[in-house]
Protein 1
Amino acid sequence: MTDATTLKSQFLLDPSITYLNFGSFGACPRPVFKDYQDWQLLLESEPCQYIAVNGVNYLKTSRQALASFINCDADDVVYVTNPTYAMNIIAKSLKLEEGDEILATNLEYGALDRTWNYYCNKSKARYVRQPIDLPVVSKEAILEQFWAGYNSKTKAIFISQITSATALILPVKEICDMAKERGLLTIVDGAHVPGHIPLDLSELRADIYTGACHKWLMTPKGCSFLYVKKEFQNQFDPVIISWGYESAAPSHSQFLDYHQMQGTRDFSAFLTVPKALQFRTENHWDEVAADCREMVRANYTRFCGLMGSEPICPVTDEFLGQMCSIPIKTNSPEKLHDYLFGHYKIEVPVPRQENQMFLRYSIQGFNTQGDLDRLYDALKEIISETDLLTV
């Protein structure tokens, strides 16, 4: 297996920074970024051929590679810039009526909370952020707490497969199965999932799923996808109406026509997915990821001990992937983040989840135990020398 030092040389990250925030925006390996630049050069060498003549086939090839990786029909996915864009497609077209409810949790991503609040407010529907207790004690407890928010007004469920601020893997398969029994539309935010933990859309059976490729799949920024089950595809309009509507040359799929054909835009990032998958294969990424997960688990309780807190879930693969969130006590999360970066050159997020603050570290193949030791020592100094952290 490729070692961390060799892998680090494959990335464009500033070597002077201890980078423990892969979860936010990912990072692109050199071969994948080179592929991106090659696509952009091809675009500039003959824009008309790239966009108007060959673009559909370029996108098809990339969609086929992605679909094989996440196990779905290539015609059931379209590329979008990010999961928030994807979810705006869904929320905007979902025919909500006054009194309808969208059942979610209180652990969802803030941008998507805002998306659902916006469209629910317009239609006088309700976005229900059902509380999930922390620390999580079991999968069964999550299911019980989530479904306590269900009633006859619930129209759809919306849930993260991996949460953002709390970095928890939620039992989405079980939730989708239960939702099916209740006749509910299932909408899943999988922003952190592709390339992070296994994703099999045929097995998951979500009606709608969005995931980012520019995070753990390591493509350039602005590459994500929206999956919609065939029976629902024609219900969702594009955010931008363009050439795909009343197309002069319609394809076999209104879904693809509506969402792919948007005139002049650089979709080069979308075309790098095959190269990113190749990079994973060449570097035995399943083994790399397993080592990363082990490093996350091995250090979690150590950091909680330093912070005087407890893990927010059982320290197992069932709830944790390649990142974890440590409960901390700080009145200035933004200042703490800036202090860690400014004084120690450590990039690590300090997210909020309602009234609780966390420090969330991500581990990717280029990270070492030394990176986490640097973070640990920095936090120890901050506790003793500043008022940014208390224990």
Protein 2
Amino acid sequence: MLIFAMATQFGGNSSRRGPDVVTEELVAVLSTSAWYEFKPLFELVYMNLRARKSASGGEEMLRLRAYEKLQSLVNRGMVQKSITKAGKKYRGLASLAQLLAAAPATPAAA
């Protein structure tokens, strides 16, 4: 009975997460019309996150999260994926720019 009470105590529908900074940075970098392979794209995102002091959890874990977020944007039709012999490349579409414009402005770090 005690275990059940503890399990329900921590469950719930509210989330304490803040804004998804990885997706914000992906959108910011991909909002240009340039094509990016994943490695250079991740390096730009990682550099921007470090500048914002938002890169936490280790580089490899952040790389996995960024790839997952990128694939989510591809599946939602906001990023175009091109597969060639040289590799996979990604480019933001017009719907991605709309997502960037609709996102609330984040406060600048002091």
Protein 3
Amino acid sequence: MEYKTIQLAFDSGVATITLNRPEKRNAISRALVEELLAALAEVEKSAAQVVILTGAGKAFCAAWTSTS
């Protein structure tokens, strides 16, 4: 699946999910939540045994905003 608000990478049994909305300080939006759930489902089906959740830019994650 192609993601717009996150990035998903696999390397040697490790999946890394990066919240990728640095211009919004990675604020949670409906689109991001949907993509995050899809990515987690993808990881669950993979051979990965570890998941790293990180954020792009200066902030890991900002609060939910209804206008994002």
Protein 4
Amino acid sequence: MIAALSCGGVVVLAEPVTISLLRRAAVLDRPNQRSSHSVATPRGGGAPIAAGLVLAALLIGGRVAVAFVIAVTAFGVIGFAEDLSGLSVRRRLALQAAGGLAAAAVLVSRLSLPTAGRVAAVVAIALWVTGFVNAFNFMDGVNGIAAAHALIGGAVFACLGAWRHDVFLAAGGAAVAAGAAAFLPWNAVRARVFLGDVGSYGLGAALAVLGACAVIRGIPAEAALGPLALYLADTAWTLQRRIRAGQKWSQAHRTHIYQQWCDAGWSHLRVTVVTSAVTLLLCLLGAASLTGVTAIRAGADIVAIGVLAVYLRSPVLLRRTTARLERALYAHPAGDPLLPAGDRRPAGAAVRAGGHLGGGRGHRDRAHRDAEPPDRRRAARVPRRDPAAGAA
């Protein structure tokens, strides 16, 4: 509780000051063709979260807390440098690898492994931390999504820690959840500040260390990876798709699954809510592994794989649904036998486009106006089309 309150308190108190300083220093994320926002917005608002997580870990204490502090500090500093002036891909990866190796070395220092096994564990954990930090950063593209998933992940790890009576896992998870919850009002719905790389790197490192710690402490992999599975699947799927298409993997883009949802007309809030709901479902399915019953665990794993498959396939399903709606809207006005022959015309441009269906009242109203017949007096004389005309 003290760790959670300290992290959340730092964010609540420091965030307004941070936003003011970022604006004065012109540390702004300006819109471009890959952006999901249209207004220049301060970036770097995740710095108070990183500071709060470090404070919380120092209060908890212990060797795992040292690894946690090293990871959050190292990746947070790298992210803040990226927010301020940018780093080349090679330099950024080199610094991330160094931070991941340092944290991993501390994390496995007490494990009873032979030298070769310890070296392999350090390398594996360093790759895991570096990889997930970048995945978390890639997925921070719409308002509230990163903070919402950090909130879910922190809460899940806190529950796992309480279940295993693991002090650090419980307190560290609670601190992550509290920091993310305190940041959400500044970023959800209408973003007044972005996490920036300092925030996404810091939160990503914190969740990666908590996940590695959970697996080392004997928690089943499904339960430990449940809060992180959607981010890992989306990033891995998008990366392999771009590599197979011959695109440069390190080049910025907007082809993640959640970004394709935005391009289909979904709002930031809707994307955040739906992806969070999928992550919660994956967490519940992962928790089935805690029962110790092989059949239940295997069944939950199969369902979880199916959920991720549907998520990764969702842009294609959305396009097919939109295409069917477009065909239905296009064909109806031209083939309606109740319309006079002169009014049997193709639908207006807004109806044929279909791109803004469900995108807001203004779009719906405009589409409805285009779908109306041009001569309302003639339409009113059509039997059963106007209740008043039918009554007469």
